[in-house]
C-alpha cells in the first residue's frame, strides 16, 4: 500500500508540473495586443469621453494674481470709430481685444476692472493713453466693456487693481 500511495502522489505532482494538453493551440497575447486592448476605451473615437475625472481628484482653480488696488472712478469705452487706428503704444487699436487707455500706467500693465453694478470683472492690458475727458479714469475697448456689462450705459463707476505678475 505504501507504494500505491506514493504513485498517486507522483501522478498528482506530474499533473501540476505538466498541465493537460488543451484542445487547441494556446496563444499568449502579444505586448502590443494587450496594450491596444487596455487603451481601447481611450482611443476609440466613437467612445464617449469621460470628463468627470477620478472621484478623488481635486479641482484645480488657477490662483488669482496678486493685485494692488488703484481705487475707483468713471470708465467709458471706445470702439468702432477708432478700430484700426494707431494707439499711443504704436499698435493698432483692436476693439475686440481686452485693452484699455489710461493716463499714466505703463504700457503693458495688466489691470483688473470690476464693475460693481454687475459684479463682473475683466483683465485688460494698457496699450493707449487717455481718456481725455476729465471725469473719466479709464477707457476700455468695446470687448472689455461688453465683458463687464458696461455697453448699455456707455460709462459707469468701476474699481481698478493693477495685477502684479
From TrEMBL:
The keyword Cell wall biogenesis/degradation applies. Residues 46-75 are annotated as: Disordered. Pfam families: DPBB_1 (PF03330). Transmembrane segments: none annotated. Residues 72-159 form the RlpA-like protein double-psi beta-barrel domain. Keywords: Cell wall biogenesis/degradation, Lyase. Residues 54-69 have a biased composition (Low complexity). InterPro entries: RlpA, RlpA-like_DPBB, RlpA-like_sf, RplA. One of its GO terms (molecular function) is lytic endotransglycosylase activity. HAMAP family: RlpA. Belongs to the RlpA family. PANTHER family: ENDOLYTIC PEPTIDOGLYCAN TRANSGLYCOSYLASE RLPA (PTHR34183), ENDOLYTIC PEPTIDOGLYCAN TRANSGLYCOSYLASE RLPA-RELATED (PTHR34183:SF8). Lytic transglycosylase with a strong preference for naked glycan strands that lack stem peptides. This is Endolytic peptidoglycan transglycosylase RlpA. The lineage of its organism: Bacteria, Pseudomonadati, Pseudomonadota, Alphaproteobacteria, Sphingomonadales. The gene is rlpA.
